[in-house]
Design goal:
The chain has two domains: 60 residues; 46 residues, SH3 type barrels (Roll). It has two helices and five strands; from the N terminus they run ααβββββ. The chain is rod-shaped and about 75 Å long.
Length: 107
Amino acid sequence: MMTAVAFAMGAPAGGQAAQGGGAAALMNFVPLIFMFAIFYFLLIRPQQKKAKEHRAMLEALKIGDSVKTAGGIHGKIAALEDQVITLEVATGVKIKIDKPFVTTVVK
């Protein structure tokens, strides 16, 4: 009779259901965490590494370096300012470009 009253009140069943629901909710987040880890190692981390290398390359630029821009323009650095570079693309022909658009130093 005591077990029937306790079952009718829902104490044991309710307590077990609440514990099981918490574990099920946690198990629903495991695939999301796994997907975030995959995105981090395959997309975010390599992109951050590439950006860091690009910043280091821009800091190392000096007058006389031959460079290639994002637009495909090849030239030699004639003048360096804080955020602007003057490129000599032909004898006597100089253009100014923004520093971040330099993609490669040509050797």
